[in-house]
Amino acid sequence: MPATRQLIRVGHSPDPDDAFMFHALSNGKIDTGDYEFTHELVDIETLNRRAFAGELELTALSLHAYAFLSDKYILCPCGASMGDGYGPMVVAREALPLSALADKTIAVPGTLTTAFLALRLALGREFDHVVVPFDEILNVVEEGSFNGRRIDAGLIIHEGQLTYGEHKLNLIVDLGQWWMAETGLPLPLGANGLRKDLGEPHLTEINRLLRESIQYGLAHRQEALDYALRYGRNLDRGQADRFVGMYVNDWTLDFGPRGREAVATLLARGYEAGVIPQLVKPEFVA
Question: Rounded distance, CA 271 to CA 264, Å?
Fold first, then answer.
């Protein structure tokens, strides 16, 4: 092993599925050879914004954000978060039809999240929104205001998809279900991007190590789940296990042809709707 190893700064969300995925890399469970990985746990919208400066060699990205970052980052074929008939949700204190949301003020976890893009596509128009930290949205909707702004509904990601009922809120739309009905495809929410200037063979090798970390977690599920529970934000073990199963699975090992089609379709529809300024064809590490 060389005396000096190449530093790879990794950014991912502080939630159970990402923790599960990165367990082996974070905790020395696999041999990383010529590379030293350091990890920063940051909410996805912050990671999206930081990626414009290319601060991190390997970072979680919303597929919506990737549309603005394809000059800097290439997608890893592993590490996807796919909503296969489920996904981000809009919840509200009152039961409402989807069509009524366009006239409401909605708390969102960030305007570069794929959840935001999917909701914009579902509504077919711009809508009034307030950016709120993702882990505060359920409380904000329950209370009905944020920083003096009235809040009618909230766009929830991560474990809020399992816990919104505890806040006595109504599900208005599951955007993963909506997308599946629209396209017949899973909703590609997030991916891992590698900074292009790393070049070959680093891109291929780092992608291989990421895949090995995911495989380790799946093969040592209870051990990886123990680690993931640290980031469960009051999820019990059963809920955390369910949540990890939703977003770390065969899709995470490889997008595959159907997953890649889903990414291309999402980006094309975002462009057609005027949300994404140019048509981006996704590029993956070989």
Answer: 11
pLDDT digits (tens, 9 = 90+) for 162-218: 889 888 999 999 999 999 999 999 999 999 999 999 999 999 999 999 999 999 999
Q: In the numeric block, which tokens belong to residue 120?
A: 């914009």
Boundary-marking domain end, from 183, 201, 218: 183
Domain end residue (candidates: 144, 163, 183)? 183
In a domain, 263, yes or no: yes
Does residue 226 share a domain with residue 103?
no
The runs of H, that is alpha helices, within the chain are 16-26, 44-50, 63-66, 114-123, 137-143, 160-163, 175-183, 202-219, 221-228, 237-247, 250-253, 256-272
Residue 200: CB atoms within 10 A of its CB come to 9
**Based on the domain organization, do 198 and 155 belong to the same domain?**
no
Q: How far is CA 275 from CA 117, 118, 192, in A?
A: 7, 10, 22
Please give the biggest Cα pair distance in the chain: 61
pLDDT tens-digit map of 142-153: 999 999 999 999
Domain range spanning residue 240? Answer: 6-82+187-272
Peptide bond connecting 97 to the previous residue in cis, omega within 30 degrees of 0: no
What is the number of structural domains in the chain? 2
How many angstroms separate the CA atoms of 70 and 61, rounded? 11
- Which of the residues are catalytic? 158
pTM of the predicted model, to two decimals? 0.94
- Is 284 part of a structural domain of the chain? no
Residue 281 lies in a domain: no
